[in-house]
Amino acid sequence: MKYLIAFCFVLLVNQVSFGQKPQAGDYITKNYINKYEGTWMWTSGSDTVIFKLKKLKYTYTSPAFDADVLLGCHTYIQTGVLVESSMNKYDSIVNYNKHKLRTVTGWNDPAEDTSKVSGILWDITKNKRVGLTLQYIAGSPPQLQLEMKALADVILDPTPLGATLPTNMVFIKQ
């Protein structure tokens, strides 16, 4: 009897751990990223960065499944001059499912810290990807602490090192 109970326990644990891996046709909802949606702004002197983020359903392949992710656009104004912007593509991303136009992508495993989202920023000026981490800070108004870093494949990337945008910023929800 003890062995039967132990076997059932092991079987249950395996089912739970295997159940966490996405299967073809799954839709993984991540409601905790709702708090990241909206327009966020960082300013320092005459420099401004704006992120506009929206939670959307994104389709992955191999296996084919859907999951909620943050997709969005950004604008960077340095000393009053527009350096780069993808905001003109935001409506196409949100309303017409043109996800490839995004310049900001965020995701996270719900088992991890839900106050943080990892992702990628597309540096338009340098034509390269930069890793980012967003940490949500509750308050009035809410804030996002952003930290950017080089990705692991930067050695294979022939574009210049670094990022066009500042690499550490605190955004305020607008």
Structure description:
- This protein is mostly beta strands.
- The chain has one domain.
- The chain is built from two helices and ten strands; from the N terminus they run H-E-E-E-E-E-H-E-E-E-E-E.
- It is globular and about 50 Å long.
With strands numbered from the N-terminus, the spatial order across the biggest sheet is: 2-3-4-6-7-8-9-10
- Please tell me the total number of domains: 1
Radius of gyration: 19 Å
Average pLDDT figure: 85
Share of residues in helices: 10-25%
Biggest sheet descriptor: 8 strands, antiparallel, barrel
Tell me how many strands there are. 10
Give the overall form: globular
Instruction: Summarize the helix and strand pattern as letters.
Output: HEEEEEHEEEEE
Number of helices: 2
Poorly predicted residue ranges: 1-19
Key phrases:
single chain; disordered N terminus; 44% strand; 174 residues; 2 helices; mainly beta; 8-stranded antiparallel β-barrel
List strands and helices in order, with pairings.
Elements: H1 2-19, E1 27-28, E2 38-44, E3 47-60, E4 65-78, E5 81-85, H2 90-96, E6 104-107, E7 116-123, E8 128-137, E9 143-149, E10 168-173
Parallel strand pairs: 1-4
Antiparallel strand pairs: 2-3, 2-10, 3-4, 4-5, 4-6, 6-7, 7-8, 8-9, 9-10
Short description:
The chain is mostly beta strands.
